C-alpha cells in the first residue's frame, strides 16, 4: 500500500486511514465484535492508522483490534474545553486504548479562531502533554474554512483533519474554492493534512474514482480517512486506491449501497439533534425532526444526543 508522510514532522502512514466512526456504536451499522473483525482485517491488509474520537465510544473495540499491532497509529479527538477536561480525555484514551503514549490527539470540530480561543485551556494542556511525551502530535478536525485557517496559525499544531470532497459537501462556511485556498495555506506551513468525507457522506459514492482522484490531486493533502464497516468495503477501497480493477460482484455489494439517516416515529421534538448537527441538516416540522438529505453527511452526531434513541444511520 502507498505510504505517505503526514506533514513535515509526522510519520510515514498508509494513504488511507481507517475511519472507525463506521464501526462505532454512534452509527450502529455493525456489532462490537463485527466491527473489531473488520478493523483487524484492514490492519492485516496494510492499513496502519485509525481515526477515532472520544464520542465514538469505541476505544475498547480499537484496543482489541490493535492487540499485536504496536506500530499502528491511532488518532483521537475530544470536545474538551478546559485543561482539566483535556487531561481527563487524554487519560481516558491512554487507559482504554492501552497506550502509554498517544500518537495523535485533536480538538474535535473547531470552526474558527473564536472557537479555538474558547478551547484555549484544552489546547494549552495538549501542548503540555506533547512536551511531556504523553502525545506525539496534536491538531484539530474541522468542517470549516475558517477552522483550517485558524488551525494553521495555532502554536504547536501538527495536523488538520478537514472536510474535503469534489462538490464541497459539508463545508459549513465558504465554498470549495475557499477550502482549497485554506488547505494550501496550511500545507505551505508544513502542517499534515488528511481529508474526511471524501465521498460526501455517501452522496458521491456513485463515482468513487472521481472522489478519490480529486483528493489525491490536491497539493498538500497527504492522506484520507475512509469509513469501512465490512470486509467487502475494505477490499473495495484498497483496490480503488491501488487503481486496480474491482470485480463486478464486489462493486454490486459495496458501490451502490445507499445509506440514510433514519428518524423513528417516536421523536419527541426536543430539538437537541438540531443543535448537534454541524451541517444544519435537521429542522422541526410539527414537533418532529426532519432531515434535509442533501445537506446530511451521515456523520451520526445527532444520534448521540437523542435520549430517546430516535436517530440512526441505516
Low-confidence stretches: none
What's the total number of strands?
Answer: 14
Calculate the mean pLDDT score and round it: 93
CA gyration radius, whole angstroms: 18 Å
Largest sheet: number of strands, sense, barrel closure: 8 strands, parallel, barrel
Total count of helical runs of at least 4 residues: 11
β-strand amount: 15-25%
N-end to C-end Cα span: 30 Å
Q: Helical proportion?
A: 25-40%
Structural class call reads: alpha/beta
| Largest sheet: spatial strand order | 3-4-5-6-7-8-9-10
| Helix and strand run | EEEHEHEHEHHEHEHEHEHHEHEEE
Shape: globular
In short:
With 314 residues, the chain is α/β, with parallel strands linked by helices. The chain is built from eleven helices and 14 strands.
Please characterize this protein's 3D structure.
- The protein is an alpha/beta fold.
- It has 11 helices and 14 strands.
- The strands form 4 sheets. It has an 8-stranded parallel barrel, surrounded by 6 helices. A two-stranded antiparallel sheet has the order 1-2. A two-stranded antiparallel sheet has the order 11-14.
- Strand 8, helix 7 and strand 9 form a beta-alpha-beta unit.
- Helix 3 crosses helix 5.
- It is globular and about 50 Å long.
- The mean pLDDT is 93.
Key features of this structure:
35% helix, alpha/beta, eight-stranded parallel beta barrel, globular, 314 residues
How are the SSEs ordered, and which strands pair?
Elements: E1 3-5, E2 12-14, E3 16-19, H1 32-44, E4 49-51, H2 59-66, E5 73-78, H3 83-97, E6 102-107, H4 113-118, H5 120-132, E7 135-142, H6 145-152, E8 159-162, H7 176-188, E9 192-195, H8 208-217, E10 223-227, H9 231-241, H10 248-254, E11 261-263, H11 272-276, E12 282-285, E13 288-291, E14 311-313
Parallel strand pairs: 3-4, 3-10, 4-5, 5-6, 6-7, 7-8, 8-9, 9-10
Antiparallel strand pairs: 1-2, 11-14, 12-13
Helix pairs in contact: 1-2, 3-5, 6-7, 9-10
